[in-house]
Design a protein that fits this description.
10 helices; 13 strands; 5-stranded mixed sheet; alpha/beta; 320 residues
Length: 320
């Protein structure tokens, strides 16, 4: 048993948060040689029964964890990166963004159905205006007849709606199901050509106090520069659109390789009305960003083009 003082990792209490925090705890323990204990923290997003779009999704799962960090009640915290507001507080550092899991959305449907095989009038549950906008736009373009139904709840609750026959299918993030070992529930992977994920989807953020240089250095071993560049570009797009993380914005930055050599980064973005009648979808490609500022510039450049095509008018109330 190590006599070194344990590091305290702040985490939400949900099964998914505990699973991903547990994986980070093991990794941090290995690189620091110190034990890590999980400190469970309840956030507003966990206890509110309102839909995320109504409570202003930005930060509802993050604020309580950040408060605990700032008060010194925990040493570091793990967030799903897509839940983080795009403005980083000066007192806190994003010490590491580990290698990203599969960023795609998936379908869990009755009778093992694929998305395109769902019956006419199929009811598909999701709490995300982004998913609604893109699913409805795809259905409209391909002659499918679906109904998107707003839902809340954890993974078990959402999958339960399908098992109970209340819904024909639900849309979830592949990464979340992977982390809680429920990938066997997936009946279809949604190609990113059909539904672009949320900015930062599939990535985790490890945050600590900005003045704790030793901890920042230790956690930094877990950082993946390609993932950081990609999600920085995606979040820069979101910020430049002045949209919160509950806005109907999808974004994905991926690396374009020639054989084994990574040549460029492509950033794709989409914004649309929840009924899918109007969307703006564009992409840009450039050199792989070597710095935070270069990654940010890639996102801003694409956002400027999207705004010129009328993206702002498709987002409803713009979150500031």
């Amino acid at each position: 048993m190590s006599t070194t003082k344990a590091l305290r990792l702040g985490t939400r209490r949900s099964r998914l948060a505990m699973a991903q925090s547990g994986q980070v705890a093991d990794a941090v323990s290995q690189v620091t040689g110190r034990p890590v204990e999980l400190v469970e923290i309840t956030t507003y997003g966990d206890v509110s029964r309102e839909h995320l779009a109504q409570i202003g999704g930005t930060g509802v799962f993050v604020t309580a964890l950040r408060d605990a960090l700032l008060k010194g009640e925990v040493d570091f915290a793990v967030h799903s990166l897509k839940d983080l507001p795009t403005t980083q507080p000066g007192e806190l550092a994003l010490a590491a963004i580990p290698v990203r899991e599969d960023p795609r959305d998936v379908i869990v449907a009755r009778d093992a159905l694929k998305f395109t095989d769902l019956p006419r009038g199929a009811r598909i549950g999701t709490g995300s205006p982004r998913r609604m906008a893109q699913l409805n736009a795809y259905a409209r373009a391909h002659g499918l007849d679906i109904r998107t139904v707003p839902i809340r709840g954890n993974v078990d609750t959402r999958i339960g709606y399908v098992h109970d026959g209340e819904l024909d299918a639900v849309v979830l993030a592949a990464a979340g199901l992977s982390r809680i070992r429920r990938m066997d529930e997936v009946t279809d992977f949604l190609s990113v050509d059909t539904v672009l994920p949320a900015p930062g989807q599939g990535a985790l953020a490890i945050e600590c106090a900005a003045d704790d240089a030793d901890l920042i250095a230790a956690l930094g071993v877990l950082d993946d520069p390609f993932t950081r560049a990609a999600v920085t570009a995606e979040r820069s797009l979101l910020a430049a659109l002045e949209a919160g993380c509950s806005a109907p914005v999808g974004a994905l930055a991926d690396l374009l390789a020639d054989g084994q050599i990574v040549k460029e980064m492509r950033l794709r973005g989409v914004v649309g009305t929840p009924d899918g009648t109007r969307t703006v979808q564009l992409s840009t490609t450039g050199p792989v960003p070597g710095t935070h500022d270069q990654a940010t510039a890639l996102g801003r450049e694409l956002a400027t083009e999207m705004l010129a095509q009328g993206a702002a008018g498709l987002m409803g109330e713009r979150a500031h």
